[in-house]
Structures are given as C-alpha cells and as structure tokens.
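As a warm-up, study this chain.
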Amino acid sequence: MKFYEICFSPTGGTKKTADILTNVLTDHASLIDLTDRQTDFSKISLTPEDVAVAAVPSYGGRVPAAAVKRLSAISGNGARMILVCVYGGRAYEDTLAELLDTVRQSDFRAVAAVAAVAEHSIARQFASGRPDADDMAQLTKFAEKIHEKLILGNMIEPSVPGDHPYKKYGVSSIVPKAGKNCVKCGLCAHKCPVGAIDVNDPKKTDSSICISCMRCISVCPHSARKVNAVMLTAVSTMLKKVCTERKECELYL
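Now compare it with the structure written out below.
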C-alpha cells in the first residue's frame, strides 16, 4: 500500500491543509503536483490497496478546470480517496460535489471529504494566517477519524454538499501584471499552471487563459507582479461581509 498526496495548490494554502491531513495518515506520501502542466498525468496509475488525498482550492465554488482535467487523467484502479477542498472564507458551494464526481470517473473510491479554510489567495486579509493552530488541531482529529475508517475497511462513500448541474464558472478578470521590477527571468511563465504567461516575454499574460490563481505573484523573486489596486479594492469590498465571520473546517465521512 502506498500513500499519495494529489494536490493543485498554486499559492501553497491548499497544500498546507493537505499536508496536515496526510502527515497524520502516513509517514511518507508521494506528491502528485497537479499544478505542473508538464506532467503527463495519464501515465500515473494507482492500485486498489493505495490511499490518496486529493486536495484542490475552490475557485468561485468550483474545482479549477485544469485540476479536473489532470485528475481525470489519473487511473485510480479502485484506490481509496480522501477529498479535500480549501476555500478563502467565502463558500465552497459545488467544489466537493464536482471533486467527488471527478474521482469517481477516474475509478477512485471516495471514503471521506474535508472542507477547510486557508488564506484567500487574492484578498489576503481574509482568513489570514489560516490554517492556524485551531485548524491544525481540528484537521488532526479529522485525519484520526479517517484513519479509523480506513483501518475498519469501511468503504461507505461520504455524502457531500453541492448542486447538479454545478454553478457556472465565473469570468476570470483579475490578471496580475508585471511592473518595473520585472527582470524577465521567466520563473512566473515556467510555474504558471496553465501557461498563460509568455515565456519569451513574461510581461505578457493571456487574460483568456489566466485563471487568477496568483501563483505568478507568489513565486516572483522580485515582487514584480501585482493585481490592479482598484480591482483588488473592489474584490475586498465584495468579500468583506461574507468573509469576516470565521468559518470552521468540516468533515464528511
């Protein structure tokens, strides 16, 4: 039996949450990085004895389309799966339902699901510092309950919230731009999960491809990429009411 951590985490918040759960379940897990667009995920195959944690962020209440496509290419072969969706404090809506449907189609057997909160990737003042100590304690207890279910061989699929059909994808209009500090090192273009940044001229970003994941901002060694201040203020104002109240992690067994 092998453990896998299958993760789409452009800015790191989703992986932090997945790591907390995975580290309770096993001393070693192989990472499958869904943000790496160079990987041929169709060549990855698990066995019925394996266990995987699949963690994705919620973008507007949905699983990022790139994550769906890459996760769908992996052959589950009956491996057991713990679903994890991470959101920035607003809502995760249809994310877990879509993630469950996706892993079913890839022949994984979902045995548990978790919804957790991490720092918002755009308006970072919301859920700042999360997952925090309280989250870690709660997620650790969740992982212990999941481990018990695995040991008992309980294969009952969890019932998760979400609607069918899913809500429509929102329009990605928050596209980070390169400023005067950009030295065209190309790191952002190389790390972009969807290839939206021109490798030959990193100051050019294709807004029709960009998924507003903010990875280019997080990886830039020169802090050269920013979101338009007016746009950021508008997003922050829109989220203020719904993100102010603390939301707790949730477990579905």
